[in-house]
Amino acid sequence: MTKQRYFSLILILGALTALGPFSIDMYLPGFPAIARNLHTTAAQVALSLSSFFIGISAGQLLYGPLLDRFGRKKPLYFGLALYVAASIGCLAVHRIETLIALRFVQAIGSCAASVAAVAMVRDLFPVKESAKVFALLMLVLGVSPLLAPTLGGYVTEDFGWRAVFVVLAALGALLLLATALWLPNSYTPDTTLSLRPRPILTNFWAVLREPQFTTYALTGAISFSGLFAYVAGSPLVFMDIYHVGGKVYGWIFAFLSTGLIGSSQLNSLLLRRYQSEQIVPVALGCQLLTTGVLLALTSAGVLGLGGTIALLFLFLCCLGFTSPNTSALSLAPFTRNAGSASALMGAIQMGAGALASVGVSMFDARTAVPMAALMAGPSLLALLVLLVGRQWVAHPVAATAGTSGALH
């Protein structure tokens, strides 16, 4: 594979992976405007974020078998077309309930992109390269939290919150075109795979019975759910509690995201000397310490805007180490049913994220304590799951080439 081809694949797969997060981040600065325009509260608007997470979680279970049965591109075409249609529908809403419903449909469409992208990493690259490729995807994915909220803040304040969905519809259309023109058919459809519910559930059960998948998928999902609590709670914390404007909020969000991007790239360097299974527990320990301090200082009422930003930055740095490594370790044991495995991994992650975001929405608090608690709690639980689960992984399949003979 030439360097130019390698770069173009990473760029397109990264953009597909970023579609869902971009759809989340870009409309966050518009929460107050949406609440005013639809005559509701910011907590109710946050439910449209929760419905998006639920849609992605459910949709990934749908697309997993479809990607294995029909190949990667046909389900991807359908999902991107559905995403564009739902984005256009969001332009005309006049009730918060309609926005919540359409965001769910939009998520169903966008998750085809993320599931297909993850599965195609397993199709197109060797297992020993997967953790590095995931780290590169996170670099492209990092454009979303850098660009989306900042762009969303300017679009919302200059053109209104509905214009955000014009941009999202155009982005979906561009990705549909890029998929058709430049993505290869990376997988031969498995025509023997049944789409009846029982065989599908049996296939998912076979994935869950793999101890390495269960351990690292649950660890990664629980750990990552703290990010969803941060995303759902940050508009309230920064714009309502610390009284920053939409544009300033976008810049703060973008700055914080550099922690996630930078650490994910540093992770690529560490993989030259260490294996993924060595990095994950250290990163989780640091994540627990950071979120514990955040919760303690927030509860004591002694943490200001600067301290909040600093601790959130450290938290996102930790996620940049845990996420690509747990993803790679979760998928490493699979070849034939990598699509179903990636779908199930994503569904677990988004399901945990939906619970965290709903939890934040339930508390119309005037402090950052609910957000901090829903970041610290999952950090502790993820570390416990990892420590217990690793005892059941008898013959781990390595996700990096750090040691000769590491692959089984």
From TrEMBL:
Domain Major facilitator superfamily (MFS) profile: 9-394
Main subcellular location: membrane
Keywords: Cell membrane, Membrane, Transmembrane, Transmembrane helix, Transport
Subcellular location as annotated: Cell membrane
Gene Ontology MF term list: sodium:proton antiporter activity; xenobiotic transmembrane transporter activity
GO biological process, one term: xenobiotic detoxification by transmembrane export across the plasma membrane
Domain of life: Bacteria
Membrane topology classification: Multi-pass membrane protein
Transmembrane segments: 45-64, 76-94, 100-121, 133-155, 161-183, 213-233, 248-267, 303-322, 343-363, 369-388
Pfam families with a match to the protein in the record: MFS_1
GO cellular component, one term: plasma membrane
InterPro entries hit by this protein: Efflux_drug-R_Bcr/CmlA, MFS, MFS_dom, MFS_trans_sf
Family: Belongs to the major facilitator superfamily. Bcr/CmlA family.
NCBIfam families on file: efflux_Bcr_CflA
Name of the protein described by the UniProt record: Multidrug effflux MFS transporter
Species whose genome carries this gene: Hymenobacter setariae
Lineage per the UniProt record: Bacteria, Pseudomonadati, Bacteroidota, Cytophagia, Cytophagales
